[in-house]
Amino acid sequence: MNVRVRGIYTTAVTELFRQSDAQVVQASPPIRERFDADFPVAEAEVRAETTFDRQGLTLVGAPDAVDAATDRLQGVARDTLAWADPAPVDAVFDGVVTDTLGSGAVVELGDAEGFLPYDNSDDYLDGGERVRVQVRDTEPPWGSNRPTLDTDLRVETPLVTLVRGGASEQAGAARMEDLLPVDPPEGWAVRWGRDDDEASMDALADALEAAGAAADAIDAGLSAADPDEVPGRLAAPTATTHAWFGRESRFALDEYRREVTATMPGHHRVKAATNAASAAVDFAEAMCEPSGEFPFDVVTRQFGPLEGDSVAIGHGKPDGRLITLGHGEVTDRDPAGKITVEREMHPGGTYDALGVERQAGDVATTKFAEGRWWYATVYRGAEGTRRGTYVNVCTPVEVFPEAVRYVDLHVDVVKHADGTVERVDDDELDAAVDAGQVPEPLAEKAREVASKVENAL
After folding, report:
1. Whole-model pTM?
2. Is the confidence at residue 299, as pLDDT, over 60?
3. Which CATH superfamily is domain 92-238 in?
């Protein structure tokens, strides 16, 4: 399996795949220098790129290869979670326009929605209109944007791009594809990538052959399209999977990176926070040999959050979604790795599992500890009366500058105002395991943590 890696996890993931049966290809100059090794400029069966928020990797490529690469990543630590995208990159759909916005149209695809910018369509778009589209860019399920669509059909890789119905860039002159033992599919024009001058003729032939197979799959899907089955997917020549790294995973990736170069404690944990923090890590590691423990105090003093700052509570779900449980003010920061967040609650409804109505003046005080598998929220009324405590069991907490982040593991423990302790939602955790959303080792850890919390309360 050939893998191309880009982004803040590149060194660690390169070493991870080098220790398996995979071969890293099309490595960037810094990676070649860091490993002091030659990496072939060959066709990549899987392209792994850091997600928009630095939380994980998006894998795009041949379905079997993407599955294999995903399995390898999930073997890093028990809190690496992954979700297959129902609208993978390069997939072609017959969709229906459901809404028109200022810059484009929302298109119903069947199991997903996409966004078609007006610049990506030559036709006027209106509600209810049918449109044939291809997924150009995608986003992980915890993101807030829809996948980006285009009406032009193409197969795009770093080495070669095929454009359906296009014209060759070298029309009327000697063309690279004429020198290869592989012919491009009929009706598809060839565009060579920026790395083609570094690739061997064999590598270019492999790239053209792989792109041609994907183009053939698209042509077959278009030929078999049923006009009565709209919206629907016509072809998916590649697969897309989004992998999210939990805190344990980030520290495990540190170990892979440390085998190659100097790596400070919490390297990937800090880099996942902000672009500024990522640059600061690079500077620190270039200046000295890092050692010791994760520098929570230094990182939060430099980048936040500090007392008085506002942070969101990023409540990830095992199905990949991200729900924000509101914003709160940081009222205390312990250099040892803890923050306290207070939120004023809006009246109406009840507190989950506690069965107590939310009233005006209620305050929620939540204490987060970096790396802990749970956090507790105490709800108090306007008079300061304790209304109940809710302990959420989750993947290890990470305190980023603007948000606290984790993935909820369903099972929780509550302590009612009368002192009664109750463990809840074990059935939801079991269902998530059965659905393949939570690996059994992660679920077992969640049950163990819930038992300890229950006994402690």
Report:
1. 0.92
2. yes
3. Nucleic acid-binding proteins (2.40.50.140)
